[in-house]
């Protein structure tokens, strides 16, 4: 019995490690070249605080609480460069290589030839549920990596977009109009 | 004024100040650590006590309290940014969660935002440093206000660096 529990814990730990993207060591050099690096870490403790204190009475807070309650972490790293060509395809490949590992499936790829923007959205599956998410978004002068750990209801994905440091992926007219209205 | 009112006023002020005491200790620890590292003293800000009392009573933008320390005329090289980050993290300890870090290595600028939940309130510790100036701000927010900040943490980090006051909408 103890052995089964240990194996279960080890398996869960291994899955947790797999769903968290490792930022390659070479990215420390990118950070030095970047004009700006934004690092957002909403770890289990921070998300736990959010779940604990968000109210069930307020509709917005209730919806947010529902979204974050299943999450174990939101990690966003964004590099902005002063000019093009400061990061290479090889740098991005170090991330994409991890997303070809067991459990991962990349099912959305948003590409804009005009603006030379690309966003790859990958899901980590565990026991038939979405247990993790990763987004690698590239622009000529910007590289953004988003990694969400925890069980995510696909219906809630839209709620996360544009919040908690997660960039908006869909560049449709409706979204652009919304941005304009917000400004 | 009736003399009997004085103890009551004292108790009221004490009650207002009590929740901030633990957080204030952490604030002073960070300020002390920065003073030690940079070899400077914080700049004296006149009327700070009145400003803090005003914020505590009127809660502008959902902020129920704040502490502020600035350091001016620094002689600080961008290469020492990592030292600054380490000093702040070490001073805050593990009860504060690092939430947002914005770094511009070339310009020698850094902003670190840490959060801690305490008695139904959120405390944000915001530390910034640039070439000649450093700032430490602690803000006490209600959960709903903190959630508004949480929804856009990247902007929060950038805004904290570019604006003096962090709670303005």
Short description:
The complex is a heterodimer of chains A (about 180) and B (about 170). With about 180 residues, chain A is an alpha+beta fold.
* Count of runs of 4 or more consecutive helical residues of chain A: 7
Radius of gyration of chain A over alpha carbons?
A: 18 Å
Summarize the helix and strand pattern of chain B as letters: HHHEHEEEEHH
Structural class of chain A: alpha+beta
Q: What's the total number of strands of chain A?
A: 6
> What's the domain count of chain A?
1
Shape annotation of chain A: globular
Shape of chain B: globular
**What is the percentage of strand-forming residues of chain A?**
25-35%
How is this structure best described in words?
- Helices cover 38% and strands 31% of the residues of chain A.
- Chain A is α+β, with helices and mostly antiparallel strands.
- Chain A has one domain (25-169).
- A six-stranded antiparallel sheet of chain A has the order 1-2-6-5-4-3, sandwiched between helices.
- The longest helix of chain A has 18 residues, at 2-19.
- Chain A is globular and about 50 Å long.
- The termini of chain A are far apart.
- Chain B has 169 residues and is of the alpha+beta class.
- Chain B has one domain.
- Chain B is 43% helix and 28% strand.
- Chain B contains six helices and five strands.
- Chain B has helices spanning 5-17, 20-38, 48-58, 81-92, 143-150, 153-162, and strands at residues 63-72, 97-104, 109-118, 121-130, 133-141.
- Chain B has a five-stranded antiparallel sheet with strand order 1-5-4-3-2, with helices on both faces.
- In chain B, helix 2 packs antiparallel against helix 4 (81-92).
- Chain B is globular.
- At the A-B interface, strand 1, helix 3 and helix 4 of A face strand 2, helix 5 and helix 6 of B.
């Amino acid at each position: 019995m103890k052995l089964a529990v240990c194996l279960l814990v080890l398996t869960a730990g291994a899955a947790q490690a797999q769903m968290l993207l490792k930022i390659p060591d070479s990215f420390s050099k990118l950070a030095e070249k970047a004009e700006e690096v934004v690092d957002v870490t909403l770890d289990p403790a921070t998300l736990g605080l959010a779940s604990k204190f968000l109210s069930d009475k307020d509709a917005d807070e209730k919806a947010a609480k529902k979204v974050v309650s299943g999450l174990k972490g939101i990690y966003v790293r964004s590099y902005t460069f002063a000019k093009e060509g400061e990061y290479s395809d090889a740098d991005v490949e170090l991330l994409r290589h991890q997303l070809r590992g067991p459990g991962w499936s990349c099912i959305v790829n948003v590409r804009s030839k005009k603006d030379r923007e690309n966003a790859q959205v990958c899901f980590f599956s565990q026991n038939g549920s979405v247990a993790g998410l990763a987004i690698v978004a590239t622009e000529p002068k910007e590289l953004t990596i988003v990694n969400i750990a925890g069980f995510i209801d696909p219906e809630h994905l839209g709620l996360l977009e544009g919040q908690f440091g997660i960039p908006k992926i869909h560049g449709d007219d409706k979204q652009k109009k919304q941005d304009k209205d917000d400004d | 004024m009736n003399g009997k009112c004085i103890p009551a006023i004292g108790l009221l002020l004490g009650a207002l100040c009590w929740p901030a005491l633990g957080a204030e200790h952490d604030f002073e620890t960070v300020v002390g650590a920065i003073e030690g590292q940079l070899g400077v003293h914080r700049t004296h800000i006149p009327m700070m006590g009145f400003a803090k009392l005003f914020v505590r009573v009127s809660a502008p933008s959902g902020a129920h309290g704040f502490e502020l320390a600035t350091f001016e005329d620094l002689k600080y090289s961008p290469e020492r940014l990592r030292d600054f980050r380490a000093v702040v993290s070490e001073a805050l300890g593990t009860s504060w969660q690092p939430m947002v870090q914005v770094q511009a290595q070339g310009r020698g600028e850094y902003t670190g935002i840490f959060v801690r939940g305490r008695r139904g309130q959120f405390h944000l510790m915001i530390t910034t440093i640039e070439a000649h100036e450093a700032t430490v701000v602690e803000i006490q927010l209600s959960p709903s206000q903190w959630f508004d900040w949480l929804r856009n943490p990247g902007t929060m980090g950038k805004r904290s660096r570019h604006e003096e006051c962090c709670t303005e909408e």
